[in-house]
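User:
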Amino acid sequence: MTWIKVASKDDIQEGNGKELNINGQRIALFLSKNKYYAIEALCRHQDGSLAPGKVNGEIVECPLHFWHYNIRTGELLDYMEGIKLTTFPVQIRKNEIYLDI
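Assistant: Predicted structure:
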């Protein structure tokens, strides 16, 4: 495992996302119901960033065309079966957020 410090807990607010660029990889970090999630940032439809999307529990809605993804599992929930984004384990150490990349 390679844990990388990516943000401070203060960098992200409840119900919101933040896009990170880690070694050229775009990752969306979300805080929902006091739990942090990290997922590939780009929607499979037209590569729009999921980070500014609406978050409702474990679901994020792509702001471009309203596709829905589970931010815990990475699964696309509508339109096509079998589409899944990569998710990344998140670890909190004091006030810092680390991802296993």
